Amino acid sequence: MLTKTYILLSFFLIISFTTAAQSVDDMSDKEIISFLQKAQESGMSEEQIISIAATKGYTASDISKFKDRINKIQSPKNTTNTNSQLVSRSVDSTQIISSNKTRNESVVDKAAEERRSKIFGLNIFNNQTLNFEPNLNIATPKNYILGTNDEISIDITGYAYAHYESKVSPDGTIKIENLSPIFVAGQTLEQAKTKITQRLKSIFGGLGSKGLNADVSLTKIRSISVTVIGEAVFPGTYTVPSLATTFNLLYAAGGPTDIGSMRAVEVFRKGRKIKTLDLYDFLLHGDLKDDISLLDQDVVMIPYVDKRVIINGAVRNPKIYEIKQSETLANALKYAGGFNEMAYTKSVRINRATLTEKKILTVSKDLLNSFILEKGDMITVDSLLEKYENKVSISGAAYKNGDFELVEGMRISQLINQAEGLKPTAFKERAFLRRESANGDTEIISLNLNDLPNEKSNVLLKKNDVLEIKSIDETREKMTVQVDGEINTPSLIPFTENLTVSDAILLTGGLKYGANPSRIEIARRINMDEGDSEQNIEILKINIDPKLGILPKDKETKLQPFDRVYIRKLARYETQKIVTITGEINYPGPYALNDKKERISDLLEKAGGVKSLADLASAKFVRGGIQMGLDLKKIEIDKSNVQNLLLEPGDVLEIPRRKETVTISGNVYNPITVPYQEGLSLKKYLNYAGGTNDSAYVKKIYVKYGNGKLNNTKSFLGIKSYPKIENGSEIIVPIYKKQRWTAAERISVSSAVISISTVLISIVLRVIP
């Protein structure tokens, strides 16, 4: 059974190979076994592993779930299979492990991270898709220096075979059976191979000849301890594989802080500086020539940054850049990717801080390679000016509008040719040439384009001239024809020459079925300012072919601008007018009206009369969404009754089934519905509900009948007359609302009473001696 630490180590290896939290439930047993094998090679503490797991999004619940999966795999029925898999492979850890800090986002200064994002190159140390871990699957470099805990494999092949494995001991030696210890620490693998082969000759005579060979290889590398100090995001001591380089360590430490140098990273070995790295060589050119392998106890120092400048504006990568003392403005612009396509390259502006204030410097293009930058310089590359040195334009009724190149001696006619000529609708009698005057104002030169052969009209063009040509349509009111009446799509259409009434009707979708083609009216404007007549509209009446065919008389019906054409409907043509009857009727449903004289009684006859259980007194008649109070019983008895209304389209008559009940609601002790008893009074029905309560407004009791009518209680000389109760009625007892005075009314009445009382008292005092 694996220990708790190994379980957590396995979980760390899982999260180290994923960029975001992965569900433990989604992992197979094979994947977990693979990570268990890697766990055996790790040396992190349990606290470090849990901390790293938290930064990847895993919770305590996830870790607990992972432990359960491990215990399940390590159960007795799975032990044999699992152990065989663990023994069959030996995989070295490729993780760079911190001994005092993890890359926990909770300890990172967010403000500093924001500043780091603006500094060129620092984002590479935050990129989760990049992997700067050392590659342990490559062949061992020939210059690899052996040290304590390195493991060596020795194979004798040929006419004899032997295999030896040995680990370099703390005293720097390896042990082979029957031989005294061989010292290999501090030697390269090639040097160690020569020494080991020489010693093995005492066991294998002829070793090194054609028939017998010795092969020495490194099977497992050791771990070393190195330290990062200075302005690193996560400074500290790190345990890394012995193949790790300076770049591997910098990535593990999170790179420089926002005030750390990227161009002067120093490597110290045994107290002596052995290398200075410029990370810009890698960032800009992919050059890793200064990336050296680390040895145990090496120290990597990131000093404070010395000189930075800010580059803004029209460059490919505006950011903050670190500059060496001898570097120029040209070097800084090169780091920023150079000018972009819209950059103003004639000069560059620089804001520089002096001892007391700021100043602006303008550096011309020919001085970029010699201008030395200072700490804090803000470099601004402007965009191109929003103007052209050789542009002329044309707009309006030309086939190709836009800007064109101005060549020496270019005239109006040449510009029009560049625009592929004028449209037929161009208004040539007056065009405008807009030109900038010497003081920057705009002046207009009017031209008659019909006179272009004349040199006076064919003006010589200047920079930024704009030729504007109106179309004929723009110089007059938009002419239209309105078509209304019995057509499919009444609308306003553009006027065109030779447009006839039939043309206009066809353009608006054609005639409706009930249209009368022999009664068409045209309302036409009178365009004159003479005569004594006050008539300003002329009405024309015509007829056309109902099939809209072309007839000789169409020539006589040509329309003029702003005509209004109206097509009348046939005198007796109407769409079906529908009314509906529902409920206790023999043939309910919709019915079409024969004529405008049909009444409610006619509809009842059409529907076959009412059924035996129909309640005519409670019938509902709805018109326009509003219920009308009608009594069908009176209509049934006397068709001449005023309630026998003429029907209108959309009327709905609903004849309900007889309820044979009466409902009592409102302010009674027991609101209830009871059977209807003919002749029973309202008071008797109230008794069924326990009578009225203390809140009842007895004087205002009213009855609502089935047909929607209301009838209320009446009183004369204290004698109350209650409404008659009919089948299906509802007795409603309203609440009594006592009228209360407002505060203002009470004050006003009180003041009036006091005033009157005062006057009366004064009068009484004067009258009484």
TrEMBL record:
Q: Which residues form the SLBB domain?
A: 577-653
- Lipoprotein as a keyword of this entry, yes or no, is yes
Q: How does it sit in the membrane?
A: Multi-pass membrane protein
Give start-end of the signal peptide. Answer: 1-20
Using the record's annotation, list all stretches that form the Soluble ligand binding domain: 226-272, 309-352, 481-531, 662-703
The UniProt keyword set, sorted, is: Cell outer membrane, Ion transport, Lipoprotein, Membrane, Palmitate, Polysaccharide transport, Porin, Signal, Sugar transport, Transmembrane, Transmembrane beta strand, Transport
Chief localisation class: membrane
Q: Pfam families attached here? A: Poly_export (PF02563), SLBB (PF10531), SLBB_2 (PF22461)
The subcellular localization recorded is:
Cell outer membrane
Which residues are in the Polysaccharide export protein N-terminal domain?
A: 140-202
Which protein family is it in?
Belongs to the BexD/CtrA/VexA family.
Q: What is this protein called?
A: SLBB domain-containing protein
Which species?
Lacihabitans lacunae
